[in-house]
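User: Just a sanity check before I run the rest of the batch. Below are the structure tokens for the first item. I only need the designed sequence back.
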């Protein structure tokens, strides 16, 4: 990489400025997500090791859903970015509609067990009688969030792919 060219060539400088404008809000959003996770651990640390362990196990359940949303979001981003380049807004809207349906379905598939049988879901990860009720109470709370998480992710990915990363970060 020729640093001198980056700083002296107006086209290069503009390209890097554009890329930074797209990536910086995403980096900030990811830092916020990491900060929330760290705050969870700090708060749970005052409660005790059992609380940290049970939430860590319960979070594994949510991580499966997160990975599903990540895969779906990657596909949505690629398709919407392609159609954004063509300025085909109606197709972007259709892709987002399909993504919303899939994320809602995924959210329901994960939220219903979280809300109705969280103890059973915890037994998939541990047989420790102390951790199961603690993790189950956490899953009940997080299960409500699963319903909204998918919808938000579908919108975030679409907004990012049509150059509205600052909106999704906000």
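Assistant: Here's the designed sequence for the first item:
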């Amino acid at each position: 990489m020729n640093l001198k060219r980056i700083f002296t060539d107006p086209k290069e400088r503009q390209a890097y400025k554009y890329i930074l404008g797209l990536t910086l809000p995403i980096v900030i959003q990811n830092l916020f997500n990491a900060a929330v996770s760290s705050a969870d651990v700090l708060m749970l640390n005052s409660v005790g090791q059992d609380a940290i362990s049970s939430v860590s196990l319960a979070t594994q359940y949510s991580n499966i859903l997160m990975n599903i949303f990540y895969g779906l979001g990657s596909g949505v981003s690629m398709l919407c970015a392609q159609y954004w380049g063509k300025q085909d807004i109606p197709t972007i809207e259709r892709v987002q509609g399909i993504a919303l349906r899939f994320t809602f379905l995924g959210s329901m598939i994960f939220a219903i067990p979280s809300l109705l049988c969280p103890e059973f879901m915890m037994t998939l990860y541990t047989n420790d009688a102390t951790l199961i009720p603690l993790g189950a109470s956490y899953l009940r709370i997080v299960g409500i969030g699963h319903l909204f998480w998918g919808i938000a992710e579908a919108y975030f990915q679409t907004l990012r792919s049509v150059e509205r990363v600052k909106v999704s970060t906000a």
